[in-house]
Structure formats: C-alpha cells, structure tokens
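Problem statement: downstream parser choked on a complex file, so we are re-checking the raw output for the protoporphyrin IX containing FE run. The parser issue turned out to be on our end (a line-ending mismatch), but while we're here, posting the original submission so the record is complete.
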Amino acid sequence: MSPSFTLSSPVNTALVLYILYYVQRVLLPRTKIPDTPPSEFKGGYSWMPKSHPPTLLFTTYTTKTLLPFDGVNGGRILLAIAGTVFDVTAGRNFYGPDGMYGNFAGRDASRGMAKQSFDIEMLTDIDQPLDKLEDLTSDEIENMKGWIDHFSNKYIICGRLVENDAV
Ligand code: HEM
C-alpha cells in the first residue's frame, strides 16, 4: 500500500500549521519599525536607522586643501604620511589645537614622523612642492614606515596627498 497524506494525523496537522505559519511570515513580514535599534538579528531587516551613518569618501588632497583639516573649532583632523592621508579625528587629544602633536594636523607629517620630531621645522611650507624625503636615512625611513603601520591599524585612510598643481 502506498503511503498517503492525511490531515487526520496530528503530526501532519501540526506540520501543515507550521508550514502555513512560516509561509505567512515570508509573504506578510512584520513591518512595524521598533523604537530602538535591534541589538541582534531576529526579524529581518525591517528596521531602518533614523539617519544614514556617516560615510567617508576617499579624496585626493593637496597640501593646501589638507590644511583646513587642522581640528580648530572642533572640525575633522587629517594628516598625511608619505602620501597617505589619515583621518585622525579620533586622536583629537594628540592632534587637536592643544595636543602635543598639533603641528601635524592638516599637514604632511612625513618628515616629523621619520625624524621623530614634532618641531615646526619638520613641516614643508604649503606653497612648496611636496617633501621628497630623499635625504632621509634608512633608519628614518623605517621609523616612518613604523608610524604608517601604527596609523593604518588605528585610523582610517581617507585619501592621498598630491602636489598642489596635480589637481
Ligand atoms: C617628550 C617625549 C615624548 C613623550 C613623553 C611622548 C609620549 C607619548 C604618549 C604617552 C603617547 C601615547 C601612546 C599611546 O597611548 O598609544 C604617544 C604617542 C605618540 N607619539 Fe609621542 N611622546 C614623545 C615624543 C614624541 C615625538 C618626538 C614624536 C614625533 C613624531 C611623537 C609622536 C607620537 C605619535 C605620532 C603618537 C601616536 C599618537 C596616535 O596614536 O595617534 N612623540 N607619545
């Protein structure tokens, strides 16, 4: 005798109800938006944040367009090392106007990082071509690379630094 499907069996009835319940959950998902963001994935992606989270656009900077990002008045803080621009806003204590390394804010910090000095003389005038760093010793280059590693692990890379006349 071939097996036949009958609803009179309690197991089958339960199975059909179970399937119907999940079909209606798929076809008619709950659309009520919770008041608070969900802390775990449960009911699908029906929750929308109130606003889009901040985004970061990878941008080409020159020494002049980088300068305004010096963190004065609470704004974003960027600095460049060997052509890579980092958003170091999270390190405001270091790079803000009162920070120990505030000189680097909005500037090409390559030479200072290489020579382990935050003196103002380490910075190239923003009207001048980019510092080619050709006179650095191999130890200084290694030191600078060490800082690039540190910054890459800690901050977001948000652009590259090019010559003023390159854009
Ligand atoms: C007077 C000597 C110095 C002292 C006492 C000092 C102290 C410190 C301290 C306590 C930190 C924080 C470390 C951490 O929490 O991870 C730090 C980080 C740092 N220091 Fe110094 N430092 C000195 C000299 C310098 C110099 C000469 C430079 C020049 C390049 C420099 C560049 C930095 C940088 C770039 C950071 C990393 C900040 C960050 O993570 O954003 N420091 N320093």
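For whoever reads this later: The pocket of protoporphyrin IX containing FE is lined by residues 88, 91, 94, 101, 112-113, 116-118, 154 (CB under 6 Å).
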